[in-house]
Amino acid sequence: MMDSSVKIINEWDIVAARQLGRNVAKELGFGTVDQARITTAISELARNIYLYAGQGEIMIEKVESGTKKGMTIISRDEGPGIPDLRKVMEDGFSTSGGLGAGLPGVKRLMDEFSIESTPGKGTFIQSVKWLR
Amino acid sequence: MRKKIYQYVQSHSDEILNEWIELMRTEADERAVQAMSDHMFVKTSAEFVDLVVSNFSETEEAFHERAVDFSEKIVRLGWPLTMMTDGLRVFGQIVENGMQKDGTIDHSSYFEFMGEINNWMFPMYKTITQAYTTSWERTVSLQKIALQELSAPLIPVFDKISVMPLVGTIDTERAKQIMENLLEGVVRHRAEVVLIDITGVPVVDTMVAHHIIQAAEAVRLVGAKCTIVGIRPEIAQTIVNLGINLEDVTTTSTMKKGVEQALAMTSRQIVEVQE
């Protein structure tokens, strides 16, 4: 299985992560709408890392399960973590004065979504988009 | 010893060059070899070897100047830095092998030779890497300025109507500029309607949307109306998926519709003349 990752340290790394995601999505044969969904999801995740954790990593993997093919986006950081997971998954909740649509938005953009976070340790988000 | 190395290098310069090119072709980064034609590769290689040899005869300052010139050139040609550092290493190896073969150095003088060649090579590594990275950094900063210049112009297209085309990624720095240019331009051009065209923005995530909403709100505060034009179908879908509320902002799919709407808002229309 081929996989690759982008370290997120500054704002331009978000663009690099996005570009990588778009290339992989294109390779797998995702249509333009799904490509836009995937790149937007990566953009949200990478920006969260940049804004809240300072640094971290976006990993992109191709996945296969039975006859289904798709791609996994993993976002990992060792930042402050999220104290109340239920709250950040609510629409309109934001600590930064933003729109508060980030994480719930990613969940809607992707097909599968899971999040683990330990305050003081970091956050791990895994999401999958299946090719239809 | 230094003299011996110099003598060897000078009397064997053609051989060294040929061997160097041969070795670099097989060892070097493919990018570097592909980046230029064969003729160019040989020519640039000759220049590089020349530069290294000149380190013996010229003063430090003259060498530094040459290194800077050469570095600028190869940055433009797209040679990676490793091509220069590997190049130096290979050069040292060739000289070492050659001098061993013709008996100029043997076991007893090997340490002296290594010491001398290191003394010769290390400052050169430093100068060359420094020169290369400096010209690289300059290229990057020039591009940054160039990027900023085409960042976010506000163009008056009709009386009371202005357009701001956005192309490329919007980061925090650019978002700030968009806001400033927008507000300043609206006041200066006495615009009543501003069309922000996002056809060329590859990704609209929550941050970009947030900046656009804020910009539209600020435009409203200075007494003008703002319309977002050029929302592509896939962008429309991601905006809906993200759950972004753009209800307070007027939007259209194309610039054409946007202009028509803007003309209607300022009680005008375009008519065909009949003659």
TrEMBL record, chain A:
Organism field: Domibacillus antri
Pfam families assigned: HATPase_c
CDD domains the UniProt entry points to: HATPase_RsbT-like
Keyword Cell division part of the UniProt annotation: no
InterPro entries: HATPase_C_sf, HATPase_dom
Protein name, per record: ATP-binding protein
Alphabetized GO MF terms: ATP binding
Keyword line: ATP-binding, Nucleotide-binding
Keyword DNA-binding: no
From TrEMBL, chain B:
Alphabetical keyword list: Phosphoprotein
PROSITE patterns: STAS
Gene3D superfamilies found in the cross-reference section: Globins (1.10.490.10), STAS domain (3.30.750.24)
Keyword Protease listed: no
Coiled-coil region list: none
Protein's name in the database: RsbR protein
Stored Pfam families: Rsbr_N, STAS
Every STAS domain range: 151-266
Single GO molecular function: heme binding
InterPro entries: Bact_StressResp_Reg, Globin/Proto, RsbRA_N, STAS_dom, STAS_dom_sf
